[in-house]
Write a structure and sequence with these properties.
By secondary structure, this protein is mostly helical. It has one domain (about 1-94). It is about 85% helix and about 0% strand. It has helices at about 1-5, 15-35, 45-65, 70-94. Helix 2 (about 15-35) packs across helix 4 (about 70-94).
């Protein structure tokens, strides 16, 4: 989603990251409503994960604001590169 916001909509990495976080939060809220409505949520799993997600988002946003868009861009490229390498390794191993 960050890539979409940068490449298609022309946002800088910092703004794209913030918008992606907001969209992720909205989708998590929709999922919560869905699972609650169907009575199929596992609160012992969901609550710690929600707390960890909130803490990670808060800390990530603070670091991104302190370090700036350039830092977010390098981190994004590093994470995407690591995921590509991991996928390649999994394909080679079978």
């Amino acid at each position: 989603m960050i890539y979409l916001f940068v490449a298609v909509l022309g946002f800088d990495f910092l703004r794209a990251s913030a918008l992606a976080k907001a969209a992720n939060w909205a989708s998590n809220g929709a999922a919560l409503v869905f699972f609650l409505a169907h009575g199929s949520w596992l609160w012992k799993v969901a609550l710690p994960l929600a707390a960890a997600n909130g803490l990670g988002g808060y800390l990530g946003a603070r670091v991104a604001l302190e370090k700036g868009s350039r830092w977010v861009r390098f981190l994004f490229i590093g994470v995407v590169g690591a995921l590509i390498l991991r996928l390649g390794w999994q394909l080679i191993r079978g």
